[in-house]
Amino acid sequence: MTRAELTYALTAVLPHEGNRKGGVGLTVREGELLAYATDGYTTGLSRVTWPQVPPFDVCLPVSEARDLMRFLRPSRVDEQSEAVELLSQDGELHVAIPGDSQVFTLKEPTYSLDDLLALMRKVHGLPTEFSDCLYSPLLLGKFAKAQREANDRLRLYPKRTKNGKIGAAVLTIGTQFIGAVAGMDDSVETDSALSSFLQTEDKAA
């Protein structure tokens, strides 16, 4: 795994931690490193290939995760492909890059990767909603950092919860990120605003 890859994985999920106490999780399984975080309204999960590494599962406080991202972020093009080594030991994460190393404090996780995956499976299993669903622009903006390549696209799977009033959605960005976003209550005011815009446009025509 390279500095650029791990930097991306952290950058993509940090907006979803929301400065709460949940932290940012890092899990290695089946040849991949997965980074994940949630603030209860949005969830982000990114992955990068990391073959031939023993499984491990750690959680970083958000401040430590941000410090790790800054430590890893390449400042020159030739640093992007430099290898990263991680070692979890005695409540600390030891991180090494060529010519430098740093130690980061870990915390006890409040949720697991499997918890988040189960939540997204549950949401994705709801019936797809083909009419309008409402989402906060601020919440959707948290997913902008997950675009890694210029041709990555956000694919949204809108769902309708049982009470029929609040939409939720699972989404993907490219092939290395999945997420979820909570919906908002239906609003008569929103429908009225749309109608008033269209009526104004008709009158202008």
What is the CATH domain class of the largest domain?
Alpha Beta
Uncertain stretches of 5 or more adjacent residues: 201-205
Provide the CATH superfamily of the largest domain.
DNA Polymerase III, subunit A, domain 2
Q: Within the CATH hierarchy, at the fold level, what is the topology of the largest domain? A: DNA Polymerase III, Chain A, domain 2
Structural class: alpha+beta
CATH architecture of the largest domain: Roll
Q: What quaternary form is this?
A: single chain
Rounded mean pLDDT score? 86
Number of H/I helices: 5
As a percent range, the share of helical residues equals: 25-40%
Classify the beta-strand content into a percent band.
25-35%
What is the CA-CA span between the terminal residues? 58 Å
Overall tally of domains: 2
Radius of gyration, CA atoms, in whole angstroms: 20 Å
Write down how many β-strands occur, each being a DSSP E stretch of 2 or more residues. 10
N to C succession of SSEs: HEEEEHEEEHHEEEH
Main pleated-sheet profile? 7 strands, antiparallel
Overall morphology: elongated
- Give the strand order, joined by hyphens, for the main sheet: 4-1-2-3-10-9-8
